[in-house]
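Running this now, will post back.
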Amino acid sequence: MTITASSTSATTQTSLLPAGQLQGRTVVIFGGTSGIGLSAAVQAKAAGAEVIVIGSDRARAQRAAAENGLDGWRAADVTRSDTIHEALANIPHVDHLVLLAGSFVVGKVMEAELGHLRRAFDERIWASVHAIRALGDRLAPDGSVTFISGSLADRPNAHGTAVLAAASAAMEALARGLALELAPRRVNTLSPGPIETPLLSKALGEGRDAAVTAMKQALPLHRLGTAEEAGAAAVFLMTNGWMNGATLNVDGGARLI
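Update: finished.
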């Protein structure tokens, strides 16, 4: 399941970071086949890293790696510990583990099927625990782990996002605890606001255009963020050795309104 792409492969994303910051480092990104994760992968590669992306769909993971000149790919269902262990089994060393996988789990507590709501925690908390345990000592002592939360952790709403908001806030708490447990490895959380990604479009559905227009009017910067901006923030958390136990908000001020 590992591929090495030619240096002449077409790059579909761009980098906001200087070259060389991650020279000789191995970066593994769960959720690295589209959106923020793919942008982070491309920017880490441009900064000198060997990058392996892991996604839920084999064909998309292989395509993302080939089209962007990445070093490898895997497929895994992050709600299943066995597939997480399998995806990581033959990677000898990881300097930076990035866990950005997770769907937009929506459903009101009094109405939704509990198995569906449970996915919010399975895809985030338990997937992260399984990945870290699977790597064990192969995660470099001077390396890092980056989680993802989201603006719902600060600003939940009444539209069926209570459990997702709880899972997002839990990721930030988990990062703070693991920053102590896993030290000297660093553990941080990226908290993006409204970002123009396939996940956002899927979450908004048929009302996407109207919802985006309303968001732009309400947001302080009157636009959505880009995957490149959020991806650069993820790479910043990898490369800044003094960031630890922190939540980095990349939301254009969305949490302030």
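Residues 1-12 have pLDDT under 50 and may be disordered. More later if anyone needs it.
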